[in-house]
Amino acid sequence: MLNLSPQKILIVEDQAVMRETLKHILYGMNAKQIIEAENGNNAIAAMIKTRFDIVLCDYNLGAGKNGQQVLEEARHLKLLPFSALFLLVTSEQNPAMVLSAVGNKPDDYLIKPFNGQQLLNRLERCFIRKSALADVESELDKGNLYQAITNCETLLAQHDKKIRMQLLKIRAELALKISDFKTAKAVYLDVLLERDLPWARLGLAIVAYSEGDYFDAIESLHELTEQFPMLLEAYDWLAKAYEATKNVDGAISAITQAIELSPHTILRQQQLALLADSVNSLDLANKAYKAAIKLGRNSVHKSSSDFSGLAKNLLKTKANSTVLNLVSELLEQFPDDPEARLRAAALETEIYRTLGKNELAQKSYEKTVKLNKQFGSEASRELRLEIAQTCFQRGNTEIFDQIMQELIKTNIDDKKFLESITRICTEMMNENYAESLIHRVKQELVDINNRGVSLFKEGKIKEALAVFEQAISNLPNNQTIVLNISKIMVHDLKTSGGDSEKIQKAQAYINKAIQLGIPHDKIGGLQAELARITHHQHHSR
Question: Quick check: bond before 95 cis, omega within 30?
Fold first, then answer.
């Protein structure tokens, strides 16, 4: 029988009677370390303070966060170690609530009433699965995707039938994460030869999407949503595929279907609002913004942009001072957020300008410029784009130029974002402005790259690294620079050796390259080389 004495356990439950019942059951399993929280905020505070092994969390927690939002925040803030169990407990039979909760991947789901034996069975089952996959999940937790793949393949070679399908699913998902689409496809096809599993069919559609075969992906995803209407991820990918083919109505339809099944997911409401906005479907956008604002009150994913999106739309239809209430609400919801203050000031400027209150608009604009100077570089790129437009409209081309140059530099690999910059510049001034800026930034990058590569070829490794490290401090997300610095660091380790700090640094750059979507065929060899160096260093101690 499972011994809970070493396990740190958190019970999150608003009903005192239920907390006592759960404690009684757990003490019967030899539990010694139990902490209680009667609401979501206390639960998060407890998880920040203590690394729990088991969290039993009720879905309905009265006012404030619900169980799904607690799980969402705990995952987002990385408060749960890979080995921890999170069980959602509820008497809720509402499929929308169950769906939205499962979308956040609890380890298991318990429906009240249940007895001690049922809880014990769930815990044992979860612990067996966790320990079987520990070698893979511990590396995933550290962000070492390639080591996780190696460990996954080692486990697959042991032919344990109980976890084989789970391992194959993880192996394919890892292949997708490192953009190794060939392997992902092969694994999914192998699985489908054995059994017609929806996750494998979804995986094949994701491979098609990732390789740019959008229409094939759309066809497969349509079939999936018809056969498995509760597979919410399929609607998300269908929306992405439609967006990639510039079919915004198709994307809206897909996300709307997912929302009808599970209306409590804030990220989908936010996505729907932006999609509806892009085709000027104001009523639909406003409905989604309002839903996102309501869901955001207790969510880690709440965003000040939902308030400004709604306010701007209301200005288009009924320009009156009640829109200013949204600015007050925004500041109230985000009291310690510099980005929210900047967004509020920019929004106020636009509201007063639309209402014809020019003196107040000027005051708000001055506040925007001041806040932009303080916090602008830390703001999201969408907000920075808004600030640039506000400055241009008020004749401040200096700040406009500065922001545009920085945005182009830091997003030079993001084709979609550069298109939106070009579109905005074309509407506001002339087409050549953005295009010549983009061309200039690309040329600067080529020059930096050539300088670094030629130093490397001359054997001046230190100098080459210095060039790329300087470039990376200005352009942290540039694929070419991140790839080249990874290559040079691995080469340097291979030829001159190095300590664990140097190896960790090289690994961090490779992880960054994977995160930026640099494909497996460019990064896989470097990772294999680094693994050999690490292995050699480890065994030569």
Answer: no
Q: Please report, for residues 96, 200, 356, the alpha-carbon distance to residue 207 in angstroms, rounded to integers and kept in the order given.
A: 28, 11, 52
The domains located in the chain, with CATH, are 8-132 (3.40.50.2300), 459-539 (1.25.40)
Give backbone dihedrals phi and psi of 478, rounded to 5 degrees, phi first: -85, 120
Two tokens at 95? 């499929």
- Tell me if 171 sits within 8 A of 149, measured CB to CB: yes
Q: Which of 326, 320, 386, 327 is nearest to 355 (CA)?
A: 320
pLDDT value, residue 199:
96
To the nearest 10°, the Cα dihedral for 122, 127, 128, 134?
150
The residues pairing with 108 across neighbouring beta strands, listed in sequence order, are 87
503, two tokens: 């190896």
Q: What is the pairing mode between strands 108-111 and 8-12?
A: unpaired
Pair 284, 250: CB distance under 8 Å: no
Distance CA 541, CA 500 (A): 12
Structure tokens at 263: 């209306």
Only one residue has tokens 């509407």, namely 427
Helix locations, 429-499, DSSP H: 431-457, 461-474, 479-496
User: Which residue has 């030629």 as its token pair?
Assistant: 454
Angle at 100 between CA 247 and CA 184, to 5 degrees: 60
How far, in Å, CA of 47 to CA of 70, rounded? 10
Write out pLDDT tens, residues 484-521.
Answer: 999 999 998 888 887 788 888 999 999 999 888 888 88
pTM of whole model > 0.85? yes
DSSP 8-class letter at 79 = -
Between CA 394 and CA 402 the distance in angstroms is 15
Q: Dig out the tokens for 45 from the structure.
A: 């505070």
- Check: CB of residue 477 under 8 Å from CB of residue 509: no
Q: What is the 3-state secondary structure (H, E, C) of 5-23?
A: CCCEEEEECCCHHHHHHHH
271: tokens are: 């996505």
CA distance 264 to 30: 37
Q: Are 303 and 270 in contact (CB under 8 A)?
A: yes
The residues, any chain, with a CB within 8 Å of residue 166's CB and separated by 6 or more, are: 129, 133
Residue labelled with tokens 């809206």:
252
Phi then psi dihedrals of residue 229, to 5 deg: -60, -15
Residues with Cβ < 8 Å from 9, sequence gap 6 or more? 26, 31, 33, 34, 35, 52, 53, 54, 55, 56
Residue 367, Cα to own-chain centre: how many angstroms? Answer: 31
Count the Cβ atoms, other than its own, within 10 Å of residue 40: 26
Which residues in the chain show pLDDT less than 70? 1, 92-104, 319, 430-431, 537-541
Q: Phi and psi for 88 in degrees, rounded to 5?
A: -90, 130
Residues 133/166, Cβ–Cβ less than 8 Å: yes
